[in-house]
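Lab meeting prep.
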Amino acid sequence: MSQAKPLDPASMAEFYGAELRRRREEAGLSQSGLGELVFCSGAYVGQMEVAARRPQLDLSERIDAVLEAEGFFRRLCAAILKASQFPSYFAAAAEMEQRSLTACDFAPMITPGVLQTPAYTRALVQSVRPRIDAEEVERRVEARQVRARSLLRESAGPELWFILHEAVLRVAVGGSQVMREQLEHLTEVARTDQAVVQIMPFSGARVNPLMYGTIKVMTFAEEPPVVYTETAFAGQLIEDPAVVVSYSRSYDRARADALSPEASLDFVDRLLEEDYTL
């Protein structure tokens, strides 16, 4: 018996968009009209209809209710998220990250995925999910590396900015050898034009609201900015303008409190010499 061909999330997103447009027009609603009823912008509805934005489960549930679709859009959205190479809670944010103009991360404890080495990712996944099988671990490692290669493009990718709390450099994920390789990779990226890296040291930095968890602020050419927050087992995409502004202001304060990019490189180099010598 031949193995079933994996579902294509992009094709399903296009089908979702076509059905959304058809049913919206049958209901006599404009994009803005439907957006008002499901608590999103008309532009967002339009982006879903042309598969420029992947749907989210809670929004799909509201669309089902308004268009009397009997769970059609929620089921299709769940299939799209399940077919993604990323966890369902991160799939929409990963798609948005690829077309962003800027993607600015704050990490209080763990190295952001885009900057992780394969060994670091492997150790991290195994520590968070100790019963996961080896094949799934490697699938997650490869997915993260593919995402990193796509984003760390010197010309075509988004402008990347990372603020890392000193704790990120101190928590020994995978042991000293893994951490040494991780910090060396971090400095390699920081010395290119691919990303800006700043370190927020234990001493001298003020308490910042961003320290509560990992966050990413993204801006776009023709869309409003969004924020993505994440814990070990869940993530949330935030589009409320007032909340996004609060996160953006906190990120600006973190930039001011962190070491300059040049001083940050010196800081990591000293740490490699003092704490991660072979």
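Slide two material, second protein:
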Amino acid sequence: MAIPKKLKLMNLYNEGNSYLGQIGEVTLPKLGRKLENWRGGGLNGNVKVDLGLSDDALELTWKLGGLDPLVLQQFGAQTVGAIGLRFSGSYQRDDTNETTAVELVVRGRHEEIDFGNAKAGDDTETTIKTICSYYKLSIDGETVIEIDIPGIKEVVNGVDLLEKHRQNIGL
């Protein structure tokens, strides 16, 4: 029997600024593919053709206690990779005490800043939705997935899935 690795400690950095003690929750980006049904002549059924990343892939949602001026200053950023965020998590198995470092580095810009409800004496929380154009997931220092949308790169387990496509269009 094995106990799963569970998140024990985490932090989020915004342009290198630590949110230790302020970050309440992080919803890591969902990895999704846009698949479209294709049933060509002679096929006895549909196959799903891979058209790349899904439209809602690479959205990072995070919640801060209170209010942060830096996030507000970043609203309306002019480029798709204007803001750098880094999630660091420490996962642990309680049966073996083994720990695993997980790091997610993204670049993007904020689509939404939600201040939530404001009531004196109650907890206040700001929810930020960041749309990412760059994504790199590393586990124990090894890159597992790296996606650079403007750079036309998608590396999974060391293999660049778009390398031949870039060559085919002269890049």
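Talking points for slide two:
The mean pLDDT is 96.
The domain at 6-168 is CATH 2.30.110.20 (Pnp Oxidase; Chain A).
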